[in-house]
Amino acid sequence: CLIEIIDGNKTEAYKWLKKGIDLGYRDYMRLLNNPITSDVRNEQQFKDLIQTMKNKVTEQQSLLASKIIEK
User: Fold this and answer.
1) Which of 53, 45, 12, 48 is nearest to 29 (CA)?
2) Which DSSP letter does residue 41 get?
3) Which candidate, 53, 62, 67, places its Cα nearest to that of 21?
4) Using alpha carbons only, how large is the chain's radius of gyration in Å?
5) Mind giving me the DSSP string for 3-49?
6) What integer pLDDT is reported at residue 71 of this predicted model?
7) Is pLDDT above 80 for 70?
8) Contact yes or no for 59/29 (Cβ under 8 A)
9) Of 2, 15, 18, 37, which has the most beta carbons under 10 Å away?
10) Is the pTM value of this prediction over 0.85?
11) DSSP assignment, residue 43?
12) Is the pLDDT of residue 2 over 70?
């Protein structure tokens, strides 16, 4: 994703980021703080993908919390 952003291929960058999310990538803070993403941070598609990651993290945290309570 980052290489595609550097190369100016935003469509490909978003495709790879979505694929990463689908495969379990959740480190949205790294993307938000990476200087390479500064040019796309305000784009809606980037914001939507970041929100998707945040939602998945929240889901995982809730699932983990429910498993801990069950024990």
Assistant:
1) 53
2) T
3) 53
4) 14
5) HHHHTT-HHHHHHHHHHHHHTT---HHHHHH-GGGGGTTTSHHHHHH
6) 66
7) no
8) no
9) 37
10) yes
11) S
12) yes
